[in-house]
Design brief:
This is MarR family transcriptional regulator. InterPro entries: ArsR-like_HTH, HTH_MarR-typ, WH-like_DNA-bd_sf, WH_DNA-bd_sf. By secondary structure, the protein is an alpha+beta fold. The chain contains four helices and five strands. The protein folds into two domains: 63 residues, Arc Repressor Mutant, subunit A; 40 residues, no CATH class. The strands form two sheets. The protein has a three-stranded antiparallel β-sheet with strand order 1-3-2. Bound molecules: iron/sulfur cluster.
Length: 119
């Protein structure tokens, strides 16, 4: 997904929603932000289409509205990418001052990775 170009107002709306982990009601959001409901609705549609937020239809105080939440993206990493054979990349637990071009630990790990690929 390509990141949308967000205006300052849209970025503010997104930050406001992000600050409410349990979500916020659309019917309250536009009032909190001091924008009119149509503008708020248009911004939320753009953020929803861009994959930033999700809206769930609901009732609040007897009125139909949406519960608006940030879309949580799972950032996962394949742990096998950190492994060379049975050895994990040394950077994971390294507290040395990093000099990547001359790092013997990383060099050894890369050699092990290459040799484990050849087996
Ligand atoms: S490259 Fe070497 S020094 Fe740098 S973080 Fe990795 S193991 Fe540590």
């Amino acid at each position: 997904m390509t990141a949308l170009q967000l205006s300052e107002t849209e970025t503010t709306v997104l930050a406001h929603i992000r600050a409410k982990p349990d979500g916020t009601y659309q019917s309250e959001l536009w009032k909190d932000l001091g924008v009119d409901s149509r503008t708020c609705s248009r911004i939320l549609k753009k953020l929803e289409d861009g994959g930033y937020i999700e809206r769930e239809e609901c009732k609040k105080d007897g009125t139909r509205t949406y519960l608006v939440r940030i879309v949580k993206t799972e950032k996962t990493i394949n742990p096998m990418l950190l492994m060379a054979g049975e050895t994990i990349v040394p950077c994971v637990a390294c507290d040395e001052e990093c000099d990547i071009e001359h790092c013997k630990m990383l060099e050894d790990w890369v050699y092990e990775l290459v040799f484990s690929e050849m087996e």
